[in-house]
């Protein structure tokens, strides 16, 4: 296991997210009701860059085909909007830990 430092907690807006690259991979760091979550930064459909998405009703909306993922859990909340181009699945969520205001994950 490798411990990765992602960012400072105060850099993450309440009810929103920040994309960050660490260890060669993209992550999405979210904050809902003050709780930090760390999710995969690539859409499970075709790998869309979720850091460029928008917050819609507590979810991040993929900018490519519109799949949505719960900001807190990574659960798929809305399937891809176009039939016949495959389906998205839940995003992976990582256990985050805090130390002196810094956010870490183990990968
Ligand atoms: S790449 Fe995200 S919905 Fe298709």
Folded structure, characterized:
There is one protein chain. The chain has a 4-stranded antiparallel β-sheet, with no helix packed on it. It contains no helices and 11 strands. It has a single domain (3-106), classed as Rieske Iron-sulfur Protein. Helix content is 0%, strand content 47%. With 107 residues, it is mainly β. A hairpin with a 2-residue loop joins strand 10 (96-99) and strand 11 (102-106). It binds FE2/S2 (inorganic) cluster. FE2/S2 (inorganic) cluster is lined by residues 43, 45-46, 48, 62, 64-67, 80, 88.
Quick structural gist:
The protein is an all-beta fold and 107 residues long. It is built from no helices and 11 strands. The protein has one domain (3-106): Rieske [2Fe-2S] iron-sulphur domain (Rieske Iron-sulfur Protein, 3-layer Sandwich).
The domain count comes to 1
What share of the residues does DSSP label as strand, in percent?
A: over 45%
Please, what is the average pLDDT?
97
Q: What is the strand tally? A: 11
The 3D shape can be described as globular
Distance between the termini: 5 Å
**Ligand species:** FE2/S2 (inorganic) cluster
Kindly provide the name of the CATH class.
Mainly Beta
> Structural class of the secondary elements?
mainly beta
Which stretches are poorly predicted, pLDDT < 50 over at least 5 residues? none
Largest sheet: 4 strands, antiparallel
CATH superfamily: Rieske [2Fe-2S] iron-sulphur domain
Query: If strands are numbered along the chain, what order do they take across the biggest sheet?
Result: 2-3-4-9
């Amino acid at each position: 296991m490798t411990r990765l430092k992602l960012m400072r907690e105060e850099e993450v807006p309440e009810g929103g997210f920040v994309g960050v690259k660490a260890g060669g991979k993209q992550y999405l760091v979210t904050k809902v009701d003050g709780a930090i979550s760390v999710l995969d930064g690539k859409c499970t459909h075709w790998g869309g860059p979720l850091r460029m998405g928008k917050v819609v009703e507590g979810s991040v909306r993929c900018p490519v085909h519109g799949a949505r993922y719960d900001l807190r859990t990574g659960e798929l909340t809305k399937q891809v909007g176009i039939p016949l181009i495959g389906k998205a699945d839940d995003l992976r969520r990582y256990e985050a830990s805090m130390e002196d205001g810094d956010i870490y994950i183990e990968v």
